[in-house]
Amino acid sequence: MNVALWLVLLMLATQLGAAFSQGIHHWIVVLLGLAAAVLVICHRYALPGWKLILFVVVLCGLFLRSSTGQEAIPPTSLDPLQLVPSGSDQKPLVIEGRALADAHVRRGRCQALLQVNHLGGKVRDGRTELVADPCFQMLRKGSLLRAQGQLVTPAVATHPLLPNPAKRLAARGCWTQFRTKQVELIHQAHTPLADARRQIAARFQDSAGEHSGGLLAALVLGGAQVELNSELREAFRVAGLSHVLAASGFHLSVLLGTTLALTRRVDMLLRLAAGVGAMAVFLALAGVQPSVVRAVLMGATSLLIRERGSRAQPLGVLLTTLVLMLLVHPSWASSIGFQLSASATAGLVLSSQPLEQWLLQLCPQRWMRVMAPALSVPVAALLWTLPLQILHFGSVPLYALVSNLIAAPLLAPLTLSAMTLALLTLLLPTAITALVMPVLVAPVQQLALLLIALVHWISSWPHAQMLTGHPQPWVVLVVVLALLPWALPSLHRWRWRAFPLLLCATLVQASVQLSDELVMVRQWGRQWLLARHQGRAALISSHGDLLSCQLAQQLGHGYGHPRLDWVVVMDPVASDHSRCWTELAHTVRAEHQGQPPLLPGQRLQSPGLMLRPLGGQDRRWYLRVSGQSHRLRQSSGGALRWDNAG
User: Nearest-5° angle of CA 372, CA 374, CA 378?
Assistant: First the structure.
């Protein structure tokens, strides 16, 4: 049997089984996909009865293991959830617990996951999320904390595109939040790994600045361990280079390749020890993340096979690694980082070499011999990760291929230099590091600044990010089936025959994007009314704070609108928040000095969308979306109400 198809089916059974097990329609889509794959295998390979039964049992076992493994462990009788007050009985409680991770200060507040020891004078055994507002200093991992405040259950998202604290915390075995205004530090435990990460990040940022220093730290520790500017993260994502900020196989390959090159003349046992030591350091600094564990397991397996004088089979190593990881830790299948890492690696293993040969056949000139390897690697990774990007993010970076080609010459030396400097930071005394580091960082900083400038430049290109909206899972499955013949050499005969599938998926999603719709969303005392008409959209927001703007942007982008025609804010907008609103829409009207956004006789209008005050009353509005008319009113408490006016 073709091993490539085995890999695709196993990834469908485990990865997609967990990612889609959110409702009955998701289950149906995945089961239909698996049934179709089994039929194709049976038709092509004419399996004997016992092999077919074994094949189906393995697929079903992995599918059930990965999907049922997503269920969170219910809270115990000693969990803080048992002390959440009911009704209006909101008495302050005193909590004592230990922080499980660093909590950085963001917009004057910080959040830390606590392992609770005592709560309300009783011994507890569970987790809660400590939310301190205001927060004046970072809460460090291992710190024993005491605080007084309110214990509440986290909010549940009312819309799939909005943040869901309850789901996020449940995945980490946490069911409550503890809100406080003051935190007392009782004791700081010794945490060498966390201290090393903080030392590296602080040294880089002190020597190279916030942006370039943060980038250098992310190349060593991964973006999950480093506090990076949100605009910088977004620029890397739009440019198609977000994988640079995530600890993955690329970073490990640079470290492991350099280590083996430096130890090529020593004894095999020393070379193995050096390679294993490098991977252990990488795992310790980057943390136990799914993409990091996959890279380390694959690297360790390949290293052992190589040093024994055998030739490693990348496909077999990848397949074994993924299956073992998901059997041991099935919840990783729902991790977006794991899905992207596994898919990109599968693309490199299965498709990069055939794509390179195809490019050479298509264009046999000498210059293509140099360009073909550089082109085949990012194209293969993009092909295999495209369905996941559409599914999870509803967007595609259009210039990802160009940005990867331009940035490739910078990434390897920049990553190796950052790792070398991080090693010096940990090994040299603090006094010597303070003197030497600025000199050594200077040339590396220039490379980092060049990469950042490149990323900002590409992300500012016209239509750098194509917003597709979040399609239904069956549409994504059709896209996968349409792309498989291009990604797998064994299915090359079906390439153009599968094109109608891609065209069908595109037309279906385009019809959704061009439809007329009125969407009302309520969350955290805020409301948004999104009016959509034939690919255009406008929005009405009940509040004008920064959080309202950021969530409005998520709604707009999630429905596939890069910029709205106009936005009406039924609330004053602070000057430091106005930039967010102006970037969201071409026209923004907000309440100002008690005056409504629109005065009698004024209106906001774009093709198919119109809003005007109704009857001269400043809190009643007439909204027209295509041929549908609606009356909108705002209560004294700020709540929005609307009904169909015919």
Answer: 110
The arithmetic mean of pLDDT across residues 401-416, rounded, is: 89
Phi, psi of 460, deg, nearest 5 = -90, 0
302 and 436, same domain (yes or no): yes
pLDDT value for 593: 73
In a shared domain, residues 497 and 427? no
Query: In this predicted model, what pLDDT tens digit does every residue of 240-284 receive, in sequence order?
Result: 888 888 888 788 888 888 888 888 888 888 888 888 888 888 888
140 DSSP 8-state letter = P
Tally of CB atoms within 10 A around 325: 19
**215 shares its domain with 110:** no
Distance CA 355, CA 372 (A): 8
- Apex 493 CA angle, 489 and 497, nearest 5: 120
Closest CA relative to residue 17, chosen from 26, 8, 6: 26
Query: Is residue 416 a contact partner of residue 448, using CB atoms and an 8 Å limit?
Result: no
Q: Considering the entire predicted model, what is its pTM?
A: 0.83
Residues 563 and 624 in one domain: yes
- My answer on whether omega of the bond before 330 falls inside 30° of 0, hence cis, is no
Q: What is the DSSP string of 324-390?
A: HHHHH-GGGGG-HHHHHHHHHHHHHHHTHHHHHHHHHHH--SHHHHHHHHHHHHHHHHHHHHHHHHH
Q: Residue 119: which domain range?
A: 80-189
Beta strands in 471-598 (DSSP E): 517-523, 526-533, 536-541, 564-569, 585-590
Per the structure, the count of domains in the chain is 5
Cα 13 to Cα 121: distance, rounded to the nearest angstrom: 47
CA–centroid distance for 614 within its chain = 43
Q: Find out whether 287 and 224 touch, Cβ atoms under 8 Å.
A: yes
- pLDDT for 280-323, tens place per residue? 888 888 888 888 888 888 888 877 777 666 666 777 777 778 77
Nearest-angstrom CA–CA distance, 109 and 128? 16
Task: Tell how strand 143-152 and strand 177-188 pair up.
Answer: antiparallel
Token pair for 102? 């660093």
Task: Give residue 131's region: left, alpha or beta (phi > 0; psi -120 to 50).
Answer: beta
Q: Smallest Cα–Cα separation from 526: which of 564, 566, 571?
A: 571
CA 544 from chain center: how many Å? 27
Rounded to 5°, the CA angle 170-102-211 comes to: 115
pLDDT of residue 21: 46
Cβ atoms of 636 and 623 closer than 8 Å: no
Within a domain: 364? no
> How far are the Cα atoms of 221, 278, 290, 444, 625 from residue 419, in angstroms, in the given order?
9, 11, 21, 11, 55
Residue among 168, 158, 161, 88 at smallest CA distance from 524? 158
**Beta strands 177-188; 122-132: pairing state:** parallel
Tokens of 21: 């097990």
